[in-house]
Write a structure and sequence with these properties.
elongated, alpha/beta, Sulfite Reductase Hemoprotein, domain 1, 2 domains, TIM Barrel, binds iron/sulfur cluster, five-stranded mixed beta sheet
Length: 347
Amino acid sequence: MRKHNTFQIDVGGVKIGGNNPVSIQSMTNTSTSDPKKTLEQIDKLYEVGCEIVRVALPVKEDVKSFGQIVEKSPIPVIADIHFDYTLAIEAISVGAAKIRINPGNIGTIDKLEKVINKAISLDTPIRVGINSGSLEKELLKKYGGPTHEALVESAVKNVNLIKEIGHDKVVVSLKASDVLTTINAYREFAKQLNNPLHLGVTEAGTFLKGSIKNAIGIGSLLADGIGDTLRVSLTGSPVDEIKVGIYILQSLGLKSGINVISCPTCSRTAIDVEELAKMVEQKLLGIKKDLTIAVMGCSVNGPGEAREADIGVAGGKNKALIFKNGEVIKTVQKGDLINELIKELKQ
Ligand code: SF4
């Protein structure tokens, strides 16, 4: 499925690019100066399937706690740096698995060179994170705004600049809040260079709207065979970002795991399908097994409609059914349904 032939980069043990699976990232929104809280959030992200986490390093005072976070985190930690190049150097020194910079706001070439040389000395990869909100002024003037051409020109220029300094372990992102601009930028970049790509639609919005924008943007690119790692950007819980990222990958057959399908409900519905489906998702969260579980509203059509599921539940008048591959195997009290389902799954 992968059509953009990228090279592989090791980010703290997680391999990005080449034929490696698309990895899922998120970013903490706790204060970096509070390592305990930040590590608690990283643990929660890890539990639901986050593979790499990004932590912002806004001020010098946070370098020490950033180092503690790196040391205790169960997954590789990327430092997110804006403006102050010395913070990038210090983050590399305390063990960041990767540095995310936007060369446009790091400042002069001289400062960029110092960051890159430090990264080379400790073999730390860089992400060139091009963002429609912080493009170089001359590119905005040339293209009349943050177009996909402007994003690509900025990315290609900065990747080449970093390569000239001597570092080629560079992952690239070209994010805009406009979905089509984002898609076009990644597609165009993929025609030009083979750096691994970090996919995302920036400032996508709150849960529902943001999930849709991310699914269309990231999903279209993955369906094209473009993309090596992703972050779903949502205003809200980073845990939701991971769940949406997993669902995007599962929807395209790029990730195994528990796949809960549920019927849209209709006048035949004899059970609270929405509540039950959410409960099943919740109870089975993080299970790595490759299983499709159906939650269907009625016993008349449910088992047949969800024949492709490995196991399923369907509402009946007074009782509920558990079925396997379309055949009913058990009739249970509605209140016992979840426990019975889990029992079956364990078998
Ligand atoms: Fe309606 Fe039953 Fe189909 Fe659900 S499974 S949509 S309740 S017919």
